[in-house]
Structure formats: C-alpha cells, structure tokens
C-alpha cells in the first residue's frame, strides 16, 4: 500500500467514512467511499493515536463534536463538563479550573457568579465563601461596605436595633454606660449631663440635684451648703 493511500485512508476513517478497497495493487486500485454512521470501529486501531491531545486546563472535551470547549466566567471545569460556581464562590475569568471563595466582607447568593458583592452598611461577613451577609446586632454597627465585623457602639452612644450603620448619642440627662449599649439610662440624683456632655457627671460642691435625668445641678440656697459626700 503506497503512502498516499495510508494518508487518505486515515482521513476517511477520522471523519466517519467507511472505506472499501477492491485491490491494493498500484496499477489497478479502486476506492469507493460511502457515508456511514460514526461509531467505534476496531479496524481503526492502527490510526496514529498520538494525534489526539488532551484539552488544555480550564477546557473540557465534547465527545459529540470531538472538540475542546472553554468554560465561561462564573463556572469552572471538571473532568467532563463545566460546573457552575456554587453560592459563596465566583470566577471572573473564562477557562478556569476552579471557582474562588468570596473574601470576608463579600458574598455571592447565586450560582454562576462572576463577582462577589460587598456587604451593605449594617451587615458583615467574617468568613470566606459566604452566601449571605449577617446583620449587625443591637449595640453594634458597620458604617462602611464590605465589613468583616461590626464595631461596638462607643461609650456614651447606643443602638437599640439591628443593622445599625451608626450609633446615636444619648440625649441630655441620659447616658449609655460602657460600650455596645442598647439603651440610655437617666442620670442618677446628684448627677447631671448637659447637651454637649458624653457622660453623667457629679454635681460640684455647693450644688445639688434630687431628680433623675437632669441636665444641670441646682445651686444650694443661701445659708445652705452641700459637701461632696452629700450631693442629693
């Protein structure tokens, strides 16, 4: 069999054509080509298998077309096809072998995500691969996007709801004791808190206050005095 026949016969086998040869002599060779249904043919065992190459990373092979295909963004390739990135994961590029987990402060709440979304103010995510952000609890706040944690309300302020983006300052005559307060409490008798003060303060000597939640102390009347240890 000459070299031309070997090359032509290989091409016909590759595209799914059946080859019938009536004679192999160079002087009287007759070749008849007939269409056939593509199938595995044991007669093709002599085909040079080195011509087949594995698909590149990030691509998968389609047995129907015998071609390699690139997975789109929002998906990754496994052994036989493309898989959608699961919740909490993303892939911005096509032809990748794996999906990436969302970083803390971000989330992906649907499959086939090409990007992760930033947590809104008042929410946070402290884990990788989050499918949703969490609400800041009472006494805590998150003022910016993509927060990985919530901050406690500083002393003198409070937050009595969830999802706070800031903490409120207590009104005059009230204070929030400590950090992460969820409410304000009135100043005790003998104390006061003005509009610009952060905390309740003790009345100074010569002044007194017998009420709760007052914004100032009263001056002791004439012929009276109030020592430091008796402010009520």
Automatic annotation (TrEMBL):
Residues 1-20 form the signal peptide. Keywords: Signal. Pfam families: Ephrin_rec_like. It comes from the Eukaryota. Coiled coil: none annotated. Residues 78-113 form the Tyrosine-protein kinase ephrin type A/B receptor-like domain. This is Signal peptide, CUB and EGF-like domain-containing protein 3 isoform X2. It comes from Geotrypetes seraphini (Gaboon caecilian).
